[in-house]
Amino acid sequence: MKRMVWFLRFAIAILVGACPASAETRIKDIVDFKGIRTNQLVGYGLVVGLGGTGDSLKSSPFTQQSMQSMLDRMGVNIRGYQARTRNVAAVMVTAELPALSQKGSRIDVSVASLGDAKSLSGGTLILTALSGADDVVYGVAQGPIIVSGFSASGDAQSVTLGVPTSGRIANGAIVERDAPGGFAEGQSLELFLRNPDFRTAIRIVDAINSYGTRHFGIRLAREKDFRSVRIRKPDSIALARLFAEIGDLTVEPDQVARVVIDERTGTIVIGRDVRVSTVAVAHGNISVQVTESPQVSQPLPFSEGETVVVPSTDVQLNESGGSVSTVQGASLQELVSALNRMGLKPQGIIAILQTIKSAGALQAELVVQ
Fold first, then answer.
1. pTM of whole model > 0.70?
2. Are the CB atoms for 38 and 97 separated by under 8 Å?
3. How confident is the model at residue 327 (pLDDT cuts 50, 70, 90)?
4. Whose CA is closest to 60, among 80, 81, 70, 46?
5. Cα–Cα separations (whole angstroms), residue 145 to 33, 97, 176
């Protein structure tokens, strides 16, 4: 725990000391262009070639039905027969269709078992259609599966490393239909902020207008709201080039003062603009130690008594800390320094921040995960 406290102080000190007063970011790293987006694809298929690690057809009837349907399409009729193979597994296939993808391009796919298969290692995915949310097929996937995990078992023990029931196929899908969306050579374009903020939107507009005035003699951008910015395209430049040049412009994004706490791992992230009003803090640690020392009670010789175990419990209560400290954190640097001077552990810092927020002295949004 001491090592964790030292690491937390060291990391916060680096972040506070290394952050410059002005941290400018490229516009393309904080916005999305309207009409340019990815799409999720999903499909259901079969993996064959598993060495006895596939679905048990008795426990996974959908695997048997899918296998029968596949063989029917290939002219093989096994209806009425009870298949007992363990070399087939039903899987869900997922992929992400990149923006502006064209027919013939290849994308990666992920494969995950749907039944009770023990491993997909060594299996091959059979031709599987991949559909979008509109139920239109945009691609087909097929190929050998690469699994990072493995499972081994014996009569008395089994070992599993990673997740052997899921894997990936690099370039395993072929796009059969152009991706939906895109942009046309229109006169009005829009940018969407990933972290909506009025000040950030205004700074983006000012940067784009400064660029437009220098190169075209006109103002190109106008803020629509705190989430979107509308841009007018000049006639003398192609849309792709305009996107490229606007994306390389830099601005300093604004952000809401926020403190994020993860109680499970003891992680605390404090935003740069967090402010704390003057407040007095007292934090004490109480430790309770319970020791069980059972004793054996022996009866006298030649008596009719019985040997019994008599419980003996020792409870000790120790209280440390408890000193009152004044925290007047006008900035992130002063807040972190004040908490570190109190010698608090991560869980103690979390409790302090939550209490300061309840007292109304933490001028920031507190997010507990």
1. no
2. yes
3. low
4. 46
5. 34, 19, 21
